[in-house]
Amino acid sequence: MRIVACILGLLLLPVLYTTSTIFAQNEQKTQKMTDQDCSDSAKDCKPKVCWAGDKGDCSCFTCEYGEVTAHVVCTKDKHDKKALFDYARENKERCPSLKTAPLPVK
Asked: Which of 96, 48, 103 is nearest to 72 (CA)?
């Protein structure tokens, strides 16, 4: 029984490391945002989108959440925000941020 638990633990370590790294990147980008950082496009974002947070009228999202290629995009454009929030809603069961913070109303 302990051997099975150890094997499962070892298999989960890379997943936990990747997830914690993505959260750290999201927090760093959200805290250091400037107007230039908030000019990304929704076109730069592939599925598996999670909302990372807001600062003023700038919203940030993690694209390709849970993948090695995960990255953060931030935008002030209301059409891009709507598209990214819609993607995030579709992926809400995988997004820890959506379980603790409500998404803005459409």
From this structure: 48
pLDDT(61) > 60: yes
Distance in angstroms between the alpha carbons of the first and the last residue of the chain: 49
Mean pLDDT, the chain, rounded, equals 74
What phi and psi values does residue 40 have, to the nearest 5 degrees? -70, 165
CA distance linking residue 80 with residue 97, whole number of Å: 19
CB 9 within 8 Å of CB 56:
no
DSSP code, position 91 = T
pTM above 0.90, yes or no: no
